[in-house]
């Protein structure tokens, strides 16, 4: 089955079985290995991607569900050598250790900040609650999300010409 969708701002056509998992297509066929498979059952969040702007678990999605969608993986967040503010905050604030959960945490955070530019610490914890991390610890991750929210807000103000 031919499936048409936009992947990281590139129009994409793939010819795959419609019941093939999206995580496998991304990693094996498209070599986008930033998306990780942890549990394969939707419990850990390592495979999170954005589909039409919302965080989705790619291990639970089938290829046919991509038809006509806009998909962003962790690779699609950066622009050239410039990391997304969420990626920068995770690195700068030690919210990364082994890195396995990081792509999913980053995608869940981008989803949150797109919906809520100024989340409380409680809202941050709730938003990342479907993403498991075994080595960094959630305190540093929550701190990084707060910093990313401020950075994104400042960037938005700069883009509007209202530098503070």
Which key phrases capture this entry?
164 residues, alpha+beta, Ubiquitin-like (UB roll), DNA polymerase, domain 1, five-stranded mixed β-sheet, 5 strands
Structure description:
- The chain is of the alpha+beta class.
- It has 2 domains: 75 residues, Ubiquitin-like (UB roll), CATH 3.10.20.30; 75 residues, Orthogonal Bundle (DNA polymerase, domain 1).
- It contains 5 helices and 5 strands, in the order E-E-H-E-E-E-H-H-H-H.
- Strands 2-1-5-3-4 form a 5-stranded mixed sheet, covered by helices on one side.
- Helix 2 packs across helix 5.
- The protein is globular and about 45 Å long.
Q: Which series of helices and strands comes N to C?
A: EEHEEEHHHH
Low-confidence runs: none
The helix-and-strand class reads alpha+beta
The count of domains is 2
Strand segment tally: 5
User: What about the largest sheet?
Assistant: 5 strands, mixed
Share of helix among residues?
25-40%
How many individual helices?
5
How is the CATH topology of the largest domain named? Answer: Ubiquitin-like (UB roll)
CATH architecture field of the largest domain: Roll
Describe the secondary structure blueprint for this structure:
Elements: E1 2-7, E2 10-15, H1 22-29, E3 48-51, E4 54-57, E5 70-72, H2 85-92, H3 102-115, H4 121-127, H5 138-159
Parallel strand pairs: 1-5
Antiparallel strand pairs: 1-2, 3-4, 3-5
Helix pairs in contact: 2-5
Q: Could you give a quick summary of the protein structure above?
A:
The chain contains five helices and five strands.
């Amino acid at each position: 089955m031919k499936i048409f969708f936009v992947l990281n701002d590139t129009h994409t056509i793939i010819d795959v079985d419609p019941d093939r998992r999206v995580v496998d297509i991304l990693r094996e066929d498209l070599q986008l290995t930033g998306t990780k498979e942890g549990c394969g059952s939707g419990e850990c969040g390592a495979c999170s991607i954005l589909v039409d702007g919302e965080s989705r678990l790619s291990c639970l999605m089938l290829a046919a569900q991509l038809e006509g969608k806009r998909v962003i993986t962790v690779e699609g967040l950066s622009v050239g050598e410039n990391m997304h503010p969420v990626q920068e905050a995770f690195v700068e604030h030690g919210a990364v250790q082994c890195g396995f959960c990081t792509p999913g945490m980053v995608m869940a955070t981008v989803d949150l900040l797109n919906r809520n530019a100024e989340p409380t610490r409680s809202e941050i914890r709730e938003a990342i609650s479907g993403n498991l991390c075994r080595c960094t610890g959630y305190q540093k991750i929550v701190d990084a999300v707060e910093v990313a929210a401020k950075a994104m807000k400042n960037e938005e103000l700069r883009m509007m010409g209202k530098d503070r």
